[in-house]
Model the fold of this input.
Amino acid sequence: MRVLGEGLRYVYYPGCSLHATAKEYDISAQSACRALGIELEEIKGWNCCGATALPSLDYDTFTELNTKNLQLAAKQGTSVVTPCNECFKNLKDTKKTLASKGNAPDVKVRHLFQAIYEDVGMENLAKAVKKPLTDLKVVSYYGCLLTRTDPEFDDIERPVKLDEMAEALGATPLKFPGKMWCCGGPVYLPEKEIALNMTKSILDTAKSLGADVIQVICPLCSMMLDVYQNQVEGEPVNIPILYFTQLIGLALGLSEDDLGLSLNIVSTKPVLKKLGATA
Done:
């Protein structure tokens, strides 16, 4: 475990979403990392990872795209992080493919959440908290990719480390059976009704538990739970969906602007009000 702010520097692969539909994730990731003493250096000249579709449509092109990203990252440092579950999977899978051929770039690939958990540590994170998230009931939602991409990081089916992070921030994590349920994002365009029913299961379960907020670590999951929440059939859910970096930032005393909270679709005002951050 490192002392907070002691020389942590990562090559940063934001992925396409964080420059477009998930700008609040990029804003909060940059702000939270600065507050934690972490330097993020964006990969110069990075390209799309191919998302969910390309690997099955054109594996060679998919591999070429991610090989380029890994090679560029290796020129800037020894550790690359990404805040996106799909980008993490694609970079990690490509590195495994290249390693099997003996020509993998010398760069470690991790999810940003994984890097903060491992390198900052929950004890140090708790010590950095300025405004504990007291009484905030949090549901931790991983999505279906992160732990399956790196099963050594957390339990594949019953992960706990996001809950540990919530506790370090002073929040109350709820026991949530849907941590690993798919949000439906990859099938939203061809099968909208099926995708929204998958999203509904997550939202309804979180609401039944009395959650104040669902914390997420993936822009596609956030899109389904936040952006499309009002498309789900039935009674309005109205549960704010915050990225884990936004929760970290709130606990570190960062402002709403620092965390891009105005860009979230479901209002975050109930969370701020409960934390005493707004009237």
The chain has two domains: 8-115, 130-274. The radius of gyration is 18 Å. The CA atoms of residues 131 and 253 lie 6 Å apart. The chain has a mean pLDDT of 95.
